[in-house]
Queue: 4 jobs
Job 1
Amino acid sequence: MKNNETKQDAGIRTRKAITNILKQHGPADAGTLASMLEITTMAIRQHLYSLQEEALISYREEARPMGRPAKLWELTPLANKLFPDGYADLTVSLIESMKEAFGDAGLERLLEVRNKKQLEHYQNQIPEGKTVQCKLEILADIRTQEGYMAEVKEQEDGGYLLIEKHCPICEAAAVCTGLCQNEMNIFQSILGEQVNIERVEHILAGKSRCVYNITEERASLDDKKRI
């Protein structure tokens, strides 16, 4: 415990650290969390049960080779309130007002303008001649700065996963699904038509993150091998 820090303050700080780890790294058991935070497993369990009582986390059991199944703790949708939300209430209110004032056509026009500006912003930072992997890494950095907690993972088959562990516009996207589709379109424009993009996990579908499976078409891979 830090100097002048009360037991209550230390508990709040530890619970915040737990939720941040679960957000960044996904489900984890008590032993893993204890090791990462360098405190006892017993202490971690107390914090986990406290967070569970607040409905911020839940667990699922995972079989282990020996002993009893392990509890893997993960964030619930309610935990989204702990992370940046991109002024969710205001944004949702503006979207609903836009629909009421100008109808669906007006909202679509607004999304087109937003989409164009966002694409230009990304294109100014991501050189066109770069490899798909390089583009993805720069894109992930930009998205992280925007609050998406993004990272890229290379797959054994040569493809990539673009993983976004948080959605700062989640509430807005829930009432305006065009936001999500527009982001897919932006990714496609940035990475090129020779790349296939599939969303395989979606926060709005109840998952804890958004994951995009990204593969290059066979012709592009063959060209890369000849270089």
Note: The domain at 7-82 is CATH 1.10.10.10 (Arc Repressor Mutant, subunit A).
Job 2
Amino acid sequence: MKKKIALVALALVLGSLLWYLFLRPYDARARWEVKALPGTINQTLKAWDKSLPTDQGIAQGDDLTELIQLLPYGDSLHQYRWELNQKTDSTTQIVLYVTDKNNSVSNRLASPFSTTALEQRTLQNVTDFRTRLKDHLNNTRVTFLGEEELGTTFCAYIPVASTQWEKAAMMMKHQPLLSQVLAENEVQLNGLPFIEVTKWNQTNDSIYYNFCFPIIRSERLPNHPEIKYKRLFSKKVLKAEYNGNYITSDRAWYALQNYAERNGIAVENTPIEFFYNNPNMGGNALSWKAEVFLPLKTEESNE
């Protein structure tokens, strides 16, 4: 009997050792919760990745809650697998699994007896990213305002293709032309500048949008190869207010999307943003304001 118990114990020890050395899907793990939605964390993580000298790009999984990041250090290639698990309507658990693709077994052998280089590097990177995310959250604010009707408007616009991160820069690039042509032709403005997203690829963060100036329609609108005209018709929308740098106003897109998913509301992933401030005037970005809308799906949009 004692021999059988000893053999079972030995098998368990050997099985655990085999799992630890060869089968466990990570070498190190970090886990914490933050008061932010997965979309905000996803975009901040991608921006942080671009800032690293070891940047090899970061790949998104099936949705924005799973990302794979590769970071080379000497003869090691660290793979970071990020999981963003939303816990409440405002908090997310971040779980990071780290594996050294070249030296995994040696790391696991050394880990019980000393702090490995992989663990030190992981701690540094986690601390760096947490600081980056905290700073971002302190400098942006999204307030959900409910459902309303967005009115009809006629506008002059320039079609733009960019990434989400480049959105504000492309607006600033096209604003002088649009302003100049309309002013020179005495076109009367009729509201705040806005963008109308027409296509949003959430896997690679690319967008197509119309950069628009609301105007009074007339029979003598200027003919320019880059400027087009259209009417936006009234539609029901979810509305949020965004405060912060317009580079990251897409955080409100994710907040509206998240609200719709949690409440079973069908929406079109074509955000609309109205801008109250001119970034060229500077000032505290947290005082900048944008109204952000996500259109509700209608029977016509489902056809």
Note: Residues 142-302 form a domain with the Multidrug-efflux Transporter 1 Regulator Bmrr; Chain A fold (CATH 3.20.80.10).
Job 3
Amino acid sequence: MPLSKSSRRSPARLLAVALLAGGVLLAPNALSSAATPDEPVKVATPTPDSPVSGKLVPAVRGDAARAAAGPQVSAGVLRRGESFSADRADAARTSGATTIVPWSGSLHVVWGAFPTVSSIGAQATHTVNPGISIPSGNPDVVYAPTLVPSGKTCIEVTTFYWQGGNGVGAWDWCAASPGFAAVAWIDSTFLSTYTAPYQGLPAYEVLDVQTNAVTNSWTAYLYNYTTSSWDALFTSADTAKLSETHGGWSMFEVYTEYNPATGEGYYCTETYGTQYHAANLKIKLGSTWTALTPGNSNVTPPGSVNSTDFGCYGLSFTLQTANSHWQVTH
């Protein structure tokens, strides 16, 4: 049964965030003086070779996950995934407009880094915004960041914000009927266990990797900072996906409808003052992990991006490191 909204949005103590200096964690002795007894110091840097715990991330799974995410969140992922080539074209739209023209229906836009090679894994640092509270009746969904290593993968890991709550979900592309297979709500337990400060925001580390080349089995992991090991979010397999040789994506994605009261998309009001980061992006090619670069990935759309194309004033789009760290600020 889906969790209540109050349980999804429990406040978290994020005292360590204030101890950041230029996005780099301070020395362990500086952090330890401010850590609370039930919130251990988080200084470990996960790598793909960090230990696997054999445990599961606490989450709702199966039919409960689909129900918890709701049809509104699921519809956007399904629509985009079923028309990969068309969405690539849609993602590249740039109107050049400086004012927002009213529209009808749902506007779908994305921006981010798109690997041009077929990999067998990806790792990234994803920031979260637990303070976002999208009210009931707001039809918009923000997926940011959302990660797919390549066409071969079974699992997309997406951070989503909508009127039903804020969560990190594993979408199973290898299921007979694709959908959310696991949803972990961004609550106080999630924040204290699976996030560490990154450039002033809590951030989780995700590893989405092929674990069996013959069966094309994939597992998505989240890094547990209290045990310094990877916990499994979801596992799925399908050999049919091995024929899909296109690259994947790491992107900021929005489905928004026009709000005549503000002259923008509905999500713009509730997400003002937020930042979204996908950092330390790397992919696995054979046995080698390599950072995303302009040589193995494209930024879509290229060049400057118009905030108004996203139905919103005041968005800025930045590559802190091409192409392994993108940032969207509102």
Note: The chain has one domain: 54-329.
Job 4
Amino acid sequence: MSDISEKNGSEDRIDDIEKVANSRGSATPVDAHYDPKFVKKTLLMIDWRMLPLLGLLYAIALVDRTNMGVARTAGMLKDLRLDIGERYSIASMIYFVPYIILQIPANLVLRKLGAQTFLTICVVGWGAAQVGMGFVTNWGLLCVTRVLLGIFEAGFFPALVFIITTWYKRHEVQKRLAVFYLCSIVIGGFSSILAYGITFLKGKGGLNGWQWIFVLEGILTILLGVLTWMFVPDFPDKARFLNDNQRKMILDRIEADRADSMPDKMARQKFFAAFFDPLTWSFAIMFMASTMPAYAIGFFSTIIINGMGYSAAMALLLTAFPYVAAAISCFFFAWLADKTRMRAVWLAAQNVICIIGLMCTGYTSSPAVRYFGLFFINMGASGCVPGVLAYVSPLNLTDWHMRLTYDVQHSNNITQHSKRAVSTATIIAMGGVGGIFATTVYRQEDYPRYIPGIWATMACQFTMLTLLAINSFVFARRNRLYREGKRGPPEDTPGFSYTI
């Protein structure tokens, strides 16, 4: 956009803001038009309807995609001869190929199918693939079932994030993403204890313990698919569990917050503009850097603990506790981010925590200290995953009185449904690249310390710190120029400002 004078730019900004406010019927925050008790009650109803089930679904998704490490420790290594070459890494990695390729196509059809139908297909499909993993007889068939798992899980996580961000104002999102994500962390962590219990079924029905892990967890996933069809809410404009007044209130809040309560039409030009936006790829690399250590923990923590000298049973039990610490840390940093309306500084703090943990696990000799390092790795990595998503997702146009005084409040950084659909899918697809990275750099030949993998994981953390610094500089400059009237509004949305 061309530069304009400060005076004319300020007048144009006021005109733009007044048009936005007038189009919404008032120059005051939209919540003031509704009874606060009505707003609070409706939001609480939505929270209870949405977050527990979605959190449980994502927890099961994480368990089903990363339980290879648990199954390997429970006997799969010998039965399928995964100790030969890089078979375990290949079987773990192959899941991410369809997961990455199908991210954007899946997110583009999400709106047409509706959240309820789309998510049900995903959940039942990967549950069936998970059951199939319990009956494979060689590592080649294991790879086939992992590919099917990746196909059905491909659009699941971006769909969850996309759905949540369409229901809430921007500064209401990160705590909810964190609640949804920390539920998955806790459940995912304790899945190793559940797996330990399931291994006692060894020999029943002619199946080994690791086979029962896949079969029972797959059946549970299919049952959750039925609950998905019955209870998962659709988008606000389609949700049937709200009455007309509640639906109007939710849509009014989102429209006042970021002017995109109703979806804009996807077009080729919009698709390519969103896909080739440098910010999209900056966010995507940040997300890859966050998911890489998270996947490394998911696939290799039980193996690393086992390599410290602990028995297989003790390794399964000890795997759970770093996840509890991660859940607490995840919510704490999310609370800090929403309270301070800052993102980058808290993401950077968690990167540093992760680096400290990697150094402890990789380079100390004491098993206790190495195990303690897993706590820090998990705390740092797990908190960054929802943190990056909230950094990307559109989260609060500044309040009306704040806009008039040109205060720059911290909001998040992508508006419009079409752009968010493309960018979210691209970003989460790069999370799959993080999974490929994690499963290939932690090589069998480097067992039990995996030093090259440790350094690759630290490189991801330093990359994210660099991108956070660059993004913060760019966002601060754009916000300042807009505040001074020297450029148009960020994201072409009057009153919008980037989160820093």
Note: The two ends are 22 Å apart (CA to CA).
